[in-house]
Amino acid sequence: MRVFLFRKPALGDTYMPAFAAAGYEVTSLPALEDTLLPDALEPVLARGGGAWEAVIITSRRAAEAWIRAADAVAASVGALDEPWSAVPVWSPGPAVHSVFAHASLPPAFVPSPAPTAVSAAALAPLILAAPPRSSRSGDAVGAGYRPYLVLAGDKTLPLLTDSLRGAGRAVERVKVYETREAPGLAAAVRALPPQPGWVALFSPSSAGFVLPHLEAAGFRLREGVEGRTRVAAIGETTEAALREGGWRVDAVARTPDAAGLVAAIAEAEGRQADSNL
Fold first, then answer.
1. Burial category of 242 from C-beta neighbours within 10 Å (exposed 0-12, middle 13-18, buried 19 and up)
2. Do 131 and 70 share a structural domain?
3. Please, which residues have CB within 8 angstroms of residue 59's CB and are 6 or more apart in sequence?
4. Nearest by Cα to 211 from 200, 223, 197, 196
């Protein structure tokens, strides 16, 4: 069974080996090109973490922007008023923590890992249930909570920040990257053989670029079409965006990682096999 992964393999990529080990014929194609914008983050990092309740980073690209900004700041400032290591960082899945683990930053610029969740939206109840980082009096925000620093891209959905604001928490978003369609994506899709199998999508923005190209190239993606190529989503946020756009979603990873995606596709294939008996 052929699986097309619309993502750029990262250093130490686990997706292609996991699918190959499970017996799938796997191809990975970059769907997005990101431009990091660390300059806006540098003055925030230079002031230290004392003003913030927590950092929220929901993508690998945002974590990479933090690393680049922190490298620049660490080379030009002395001791921070309060190190970022005293501030928790919330993120879905292991990708963000992996970026920090492989970086060579001074410890004062590495926020402390907080519990993870399967999606950005699922982080909200965990964050809201956490006690305040301190019990300082006189805070402007309810119950002693300081503002949350959210690193976002130009296409990052506001589901998590809306939940926090709806609960009365203060949030400041800093745009640290911009996302565009990867150069050559349309030509790469046209070169693929349109056949039954799977396409796996890793974000709402990549889905918005990829699926129209697939349909234009002859892939059958719509429900009820015989010989249809099935669609898998890395998590609930991507699934919701796909369904909102009118696309059928056949599998959703329970965890946003290679093992979760392989398991979701294998389970969906098992259900189809049972229905054909």
1. buried
2. yes
3. 95, 96, 153, 156, 177, 203
4. 200
Distances (CA, A) of 48 to 196, 240, 252, 255: 52, 36, 38, 32
pLDDT in tens, 129-168: 999 987 544 444 445 899 999 999 999 888 899 999 999 9
Of 151, 179, 207, the domain-final residue: 179
CA angle 49, 134, 158 (to 5 degrees): 60
Instruction: Say if residue 23 is in the same domain as residue 46.
Output: no
**Sheet strand arrangement including 88-90:** 32-36, 171-181, 148-153, 54-57, 88-90, 112-113
Both tokens of 21, joined, read 């080990």
3-class secondary structure per residue, 28-85: ECCCEEEEECHHHCHHHHHCCCCCCCEEEECCHHHHHHHHHHHHHHHCCCCCCCCCHH
Distance CA 88, CA 95 (A): 16
Q: Which CATH number fits the domain that encloses residue 101?
A: 3.40.50.10090
Percent of the chain residues topping a pLDDT of 70: 93
For 195-240, what is each residue's pLDDT tens digit?
889 999 999 999 999 999 999 999 988 766 667 899 999 998 899 9
- Asked if 19 contacts 26 with a C-beta cutoff of 8 angstroms, the reply is yes
